[in-house]
Design a protein that fits this description.
single chain; alpha+beta; 3-stranded antiparallel beta sheet; two-stranded antiparallel ribbon; 37% helix; Gliding motility protein GldC; Motility-assoc_prot_GldC
């Protein structure tokens, strides 16, 4: 069995707010790549619930956070389609993503 690792390093300020985040993925050729936001979800089979870690640096611009969220919504539709084969629900999720883009003023 082969193992690989993805790591995220978070530097906090005196108030425990993320100030700098970097991530590493050796198999992908990523080393100490700076990022402004991270969202990680894992499935807890025992409790049948998603556990999440959502972090962003204190200097992440709001407009970039809106774009980040929009792209997550779009990718959720794609992931849902691949996982379930339910094209209609995936299309609905992508429609929600587009509505979000309009309501958040990142698309007209």
């Amino acid at each position: 069995m082969r193992k690989t690792q993805i790591t995220i390093d978070v530097e906090l300020d005196e108030n425990h707010i993320p100030e700098l985040m970097t991530w590493n993925a050796a198999d992908g050729g990523v080393e100490k790549e700076e990022t402004k936001a991270v969202m990680i979800s894992v499935w807890d089979e025992k409790t049948s619930e998603a556990l999440r870690i959502d972090l962003w640096t204190k200097d992440m611009p709001v407009d970039q956070m809106k774009m980040f969220m929009h792209q997550i919504f779009v990718s959720l539709g794609s992931t849902y389609q691949r996982a379930t084969g339910e094209d209609d629900v995936a299309a609905w999720i992508e429609q929600i993503a587009e509505e979000f883009a309009v309501k958040s003023a990142i698309k007209m």
